């Protein structure tokens, strides 16, 4: 099957999965944040814009994701080492609780590896101006809500967040194909639902959970407009990496920060602005204006 055929087939099969696994689970979180919101309740146009950005990103980043997988499979055959083989079979043989433990392992082992690379990629996105051009779309949501989890630029998802894990952990770790499929399903489903939850605008305090899993209060600190909160709480699921590397900020009892980037970077009002705006900004950064380059100093 050619790359084009694979791409077209993936695009055709992706929409039902996006609707079932990416949108339907939003319903209870939308209801909860309408009933008990942090500040003004999100508007339905806020939900609609984020979903449209998310759908466009899913389709636009798909070719890059397929290329990453294709190139990685060729590169793995040329490696001078054999990737570490991981299996969950032995866990499943534990009497009585084995099957449950196996599912937990399939969720949290990939999650731990995911968060290890995600933490550092996320820090890079905030540190390097070029990458921040694309990532700030996610942070521009002034009424952060459960659908904000979909609000990413396609180049951010397709390059940093597809190529990076494929060409780092993907070259070091190997899983049986069947187990890899099950682990990917369980861990991805858990992470998607968790991300919907911690992006939500639900006014809820979970101090007993704040150091174990990312909660809405913990992640709201990361999106905060308060300079004291900048560059805090980068983890995608497990705050342990923020704790280990000194970037963890535990929210106070009633600390529900305002979100967004302020008037200097207002939220884009269309899908086109969300996807094309960062590319234009990056181009201006990388290619100085011709007149500036040709301008001669005054004599």
Explain this structure.
By secondary structure, the chain is an all-alpha fold. The protein has helices at residues 3-23, 26-35, 44-76, 89-92, 98-127, 129-139, 154-166, 177-199, 216-222, 240-244, 271-286, 290-294; strands spanning 84-86, 173-175. A two-stranded parallel ribbon has the order 1-2. α1 crosses α3 (44-76), α5 (98-127) packs across α6 (129-139) and α5 (98-127) packs across α8. The protein starts with a helix and ends in a 5-residue tail after the last helix. 28% of the residues are buried. The mean pLDDT is 86.
Determine the N-to-C terminus distance. 64 Å
The number of helical segments is 12
What structural class do helix, strand and pairing data support? mainly alpha
User: Order of strands across the widest beta sheet?
Assistant: 1-2
Average pLDDT level: 86
Q: Low-confidence segments, ≥5 residues, pLDDT <50? A: none
* Main beta sheet strand tally, sense and closure: 2 strands, parallel
The number of strands is: 2
H/E element sequence: HHHEHHHHEHHHHH
Instruction: Name the quaternary structure.
Output: single chain
Task: Give the domain tally.
Answer: 1
Calculate Rg over CA atoms.
Answer: 21 Å
Which strand-content bin applies to the residues?
A: under 5%
Helical proportion, percent range: 55-70%
């Amino acid at each position: 099957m050619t790359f084009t055929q694979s791409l077209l087939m993936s695009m055709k099969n992706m929409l039902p999965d996006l609707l079932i696994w990416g949108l339907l689970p939003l319903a209870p979180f939308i209801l909860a944040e309408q009933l008990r919101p942090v500040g003004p309740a999100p508007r339905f146009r806020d939900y609609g814009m984020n979903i449209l950005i998310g759908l466009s990103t899913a389709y636009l980043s798909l070719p890059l994701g397929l290329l990453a997988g294709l190139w990685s499979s060729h590169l793995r055959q040329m490696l001078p080492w054999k990737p570490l083989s991981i299996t969950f079979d032995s866990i499943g043989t534990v009497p009585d609780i084995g099957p449950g433990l196996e599912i937990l392992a399939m969720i949290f082992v990939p999650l731990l590896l995911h968060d290890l690379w995600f933490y550092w990629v996320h820090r890079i996105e905030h540190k390097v101006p070029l990458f921040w051009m694309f990532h700030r779309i996610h942070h521009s949501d002034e009424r952060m809500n459960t659908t904000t989890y979909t609000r990413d630029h396609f180049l951010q998802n397709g390059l940093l967040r597809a190529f990076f894990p494929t060409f780092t952990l993907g070259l070091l770790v190997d899983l049986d194909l069947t187990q890899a499929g099950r682990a990917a399903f369980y861990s991805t489903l858990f992470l998607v639902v968790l991300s919907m939850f911690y992006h939500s605008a639900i006014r809820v305090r979970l101090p007993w959970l704040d150091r174990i899993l990312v909660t809405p209060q913990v992640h709201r600190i990361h999106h905060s407009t308060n300079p004291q909160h900048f560059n805090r709480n980068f983890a995608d699921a497990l705050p342990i990496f923020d704790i280990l590397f000194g970037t963890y900020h535990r929210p106070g009892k009633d600390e529900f920060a305002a979100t967004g980037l302020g008037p200097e970077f207002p939220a884009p009002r269309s899908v086109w602005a969300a996807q094309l705006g960062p590319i234009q900004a990056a181009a201006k950064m990388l290619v100085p204006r011709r007149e500036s380059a040709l301008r001669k100093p005054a004599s």
